[in-house]
Design goal:
The complex is a heterodimer of chains A (119) and B (556). Chain A has two domains: 4-66, Arc Repressor Mutant, subunit A (Orthogonal Bundle), CATH 1.10.10.10; 77-118, no CATH class. Helix content of chain A is 58%, strand content 12%. Chain A is built from six helices and five strands, in the order βαβααβββααα. In chain A, the strands form two sheets. Chain A has a three-stranded antiparallel sheet with strand order 2-4-3. A two-stranded parallel ribbon of chain A has the order 1-5. Chain B has 556 residues and is an alpha/beta fold. Chain B has two domains: 3-54 and 137-350, no CATH class; 357-551, no CATH class. Helix content of chain B is 56%, strand content 12%. Chain B contains 19 helices and 14 strands. Chain B has helices at 3-24, 30-45, 56-82, 93-101, 105-133, 138-166, 175-182, 215-220, 224-237, 240-253, 258-283, 288-303, 311-326, 332-350, 357-368, 426-447, 451-462, 478-481, 542-551; strands at residues 170-171, 191-194, 202-204, 210-213, 382-384, 393-398, 403-407, 415-419, 485-487, 494-496, 499-506, 510-513, 521-528, 534-540. In chain B, the strands form three sheets. In chain B, strands 5, 9, 10, 11, 12, 13 and 14 form a seven-stranded mixed sheet that branches. Chain B has a four-stranded mixed sheet with strand order 1-2-4-3. In chain B, a hairpin with a 5-residue loop joins strand 3 (202-204) and strand 4 (210-213). In chain B, helix 1 (3-24) runs antiparallel to helix 2, helix 3 crosses helix 4 and helix 10 (240-253) runs antiparallel to helix 11. The model of chain B is unreliable at 74-96, 304-310, 356-436 and 438-473 (pLDDT under 50). The chains are: A mainly alpha (119), B alpha/beta (556). The interface between A and B is large, with 42 and 51 residues.
């Protein structure tokens, strides 16, 4: 089984691996204490894990169960998240407007040269 | 001010700032541009503007009036020539010019060209003024509202989306960073978190600012970290998040104005530049190169995943890097100079045109009249004679002399009143504002009528008669001249049946008040029939005239 998870999703899984099956409420409480997430954030992440097939949820009380073990999991590339966030993002227009486009390697090297010359 | 006016004035101001920025970006301290952009935003968002005599818009208005006067006076001269009227008018250059031009075709052409140009400028100016003042059609209002709502919605939604995503960030575990954040000398609590979703550090939040670091930076804490944190701290300290939100709001509000978007881009860049300037100041000039390299390193991190740059963003980055490296200490002289310039520019462009300029102009023309009885007086039919040389509008009633003069100067609506001791001083304010109002309303009544129409009317009738004393007074409408009213070219006083005119009142057409000796003063009211033809000039007593004018809201 090939499940790729991001850091934040891993955080949710860690709670399950450490404490065994737990209610969503419990996970939320633990993570609120640990990383300062509010309930909605944790629930969003649980839903994302479920979608990826890492968590199974059962009634009552939204009991969560880890479907994959710590050894099985693969860390998703940061790249994917960034693509996801940037891609569907309405911010693109604004980013373009503000000149937040990324520079190419070559352009950056040119600018490094500029700094070197001015130094 | 309507949105449209705000947008146009704001756009003009932005253009000026862009010019200043282009010329002095490197010389002026970054703070200057922060102030200028703030002024531009205020100009764009605040629907009020303080009128000022030396506002750029006052100047434009004056300029336009000069042009229109010029055009119309020359027209008169032309009319005279071709209307076979008395061409003996003395001291008018244009006439002699025209006379000569009969022999000289080139001069005629040149003058025609000049007239055409003046007429064109005048016409387009009137067109622009009309367009600006005009109520927009409901369709445009709907399109505007739709656009504004869509842009606002767009940014609110994208903010919401990002906010939600940022919630999943994790606290930074590096104890050094935590210690740094806690030691910040700010009232607000700054937290530093790491987030996979970003390749460059950034800050969000105003009241509880959060610095978000890319994972690599937070975990490895390389040498760039010091610069990154210093930079973000500066953003927090300077409330740049608020500035960005306000800028975006301005863009949504003026979404149809491309200059506002230009402002948004440049103001954001200037924010970074100003921030860099302060970081360098804080960390010392020796760290300039390291700081610049750190910025580029960060940029490289970004370029890992989307390596297509454009020259625009390269220029922005280059601007920053060069500013960091070359930015030298600003001397006090430059500081003062830039400050003075900023204040001047803001004063000139953020203020609005001086109100009531027409009546003001009338008085100015009148003042001139002691030397030359200028044709210009023809245009402004409201005639307010200037008594004293006072600058503020002064109403001076003198019972002994039984004469009234209203002078109108720079102060516009604010009027100073001097009244005789016998009068209640409490009434003074009212009187002055009444007169100011009356003048304004009379001007407005005439504003619609074209100057040239008036002139044509006067001269059509005047073709036959050359005035009572065989002399054509250009300042005096022919209508009045034919009834025996004359004007003294040198003093500007009007005379009727050998007596000086203290008040000349032609309902909705002309009001003249003059400071003349009470012994031989007359108070004249023009009576007209329904078609507007003059029936007679009524000679009334001072009391009667006071009553007449009081009814019209004029007091003297």
């Amino acid at each position: 089984m090939d499940v790729k998870l991001f850091d934040s999703e891993l955080k949710v899984m860690t709670v399950l691996w450490k404490e065994g099956d737990a209610t969503a409420k419990h996970i939320s409480d633990v993570l609120k204490e640990e990383v300062g997430w509010n309930m909605n954030t944790t629930y969003t992440l649980i839903k994302r894990c479920m979608k990826k097939g890492a968590i199974e949820r059962s009634e009552p009380n939204f009991m969560c169960h880890a479907l994959i073990s710590q050894e099985e999991v693969q860390k998703a590339e940061t790249q994917e998240l960034i693509d996801k966030v940037y891609d569907g993002s309405a911010d693109k227009l604004f980013a373009a407007l503000l000149g937040r486009k990324k520079l190419s390697k070559q352009q950056i090297d040119e600018l490094r040269k500029v700094v070197g010359e001015l130094e | 001010m309507s949105l449209w006016e705000m947008s146009i004035c704001g756009g003009i101001f932005i253009t000026v700032i862009v010019l200043i920025r282009g010329l002095f970006r490197k010389q002026f301290p970054g703070k200057i541009f922060q102030i200028l952009w703030l002024a531009a935003v205020l100009r764009l968002l605040l629907p009020v503007a303080v009128p000022w005599q030396y506002s750029v818009y006052s100047m434009i208005q004056r300029c336009m009036e000069e042009i229109s006067d010029c055009g119309s006076s020359e027209n008169i001269v032309q009319n005279e020539m071709f209307g076979n009227a008395a061409a003996e008018t003395e001291a008018i250059e244009e006439v002699s010019l025209t006379a000569e031009s009969q022999e000289n075709d080139a001069a005629v052409a040149a003058q025609n060209a000049w007239q055409d140009a003046a007429a064109f400028v005048n016409k387009s100016w009137q067109e622009i003024t009309r367009m600006v003042k005009e109520q927009p059609s409901p369709i445009w209002v709907c399109i505007y509202l739709l656009g504004a709502v869509l842009f606002t919605l767009y940014y609110v939604l994208s903010y919401y989306r990002w906010h939600k995503e940022l919630q999943t960030s994790l606290p930074v575990e590096n104890p050094q960073i935590q210690a740094w954040a806690e030691a910040l000398p700010l009232r607000r609590k700054v937290s530093v978190r790491q987030w996979e979703g970003t390749a460059t550090p950034f800050t969000c939040g105003v009241l509880r600012p959060v610095i978000l670091l890319p994972k690599s930076l937070a975990e490895e804490a390389p040498r760039q970290l010091k610069f990154v944190l210093a930079h973000e701290y500066m953003h927090i300290r300077r409330y740049d998040a608020v500035k960005k939100i306000v800028l975006l709001f301005t863009c949504c509000f003026h979404w149809f104005n491309p200059l506002v978007w230009v402002m948004c881009i440049l103001a954001n860049r200037d924010m970074e530049l100003d921030c860099d300037e302060h970081v360098i100041k804080r960390l010392g000039r020796d760290s300039r190169a390291d700081y610049a390299y750190a910025l580029l390193d960060m940029e490289e991190q970004r370029s890992v995943f989307l390596s297509w740059g454009n020259s625009f963003s390269k220029n922005a980055m280059e601007e920053r890097v060069v500013a960091i490296m070359k930015g030298n200490k600003k001397s006090i002289a430059v500081g003062i100079l830039s400050g003075v310039m900023t204040v001047g520019v803001i004063m000139a462009f953020v203020t609005s045109a001086f109100a009531m300029d027409k009546s003001q102009k009338a008085s100015q023309v009148y003042t001139d009249s002691s030397e030359t009885y200028d044709v210009k007086a023809e245009g402004g039919r409201v005639y307010v004679s200037k008594g004293t040389a006072g600058q503020s509008a002064a109403v001076n009633e003198d019972v002994e002399e039984q004469s009234v003069y209203v002078s109108k100067g720079t102060a516009g609506q604010s009027a100073a009143v001097n009244e005789d001791m016998e009068e209640q001083s409490a009434a003074v304010e009212d009187i002055s504002s009444d007169i100011a109002y009356a003048i304004e309303s009379t001007v407005e009544q005439y504003a619609g009528a074209e100057n040239s129409e008036n002139i044509a009317y006067a001269y059509d009738e005047g073709d036959a008669s050359e005035g009572v004393n065989g002399h054509l007074d250009l300042g005096l409408p022919e209508e009045y001249v034919s009834l025996g009213v004359t004007a003294d070219l040198h003093t500007g006083t009007w005379e009727y049946q050998g007596k000086k005119v203290a008040v000349f009142y032609d309902k909705d057409r002309w009001l003249l008040t003059a400071d003349v000796s009470p012994k031989d003063a007359v108070y004249l009211e023009v009576c007209r029939d329904k078609e507007g033809k003059i029936e007679q000039i009524k000679n009334c007593s001072k009391k009667e005239m006071q009553n007449i004018l009081k009814k019209k809201g004029l007091v003297f």
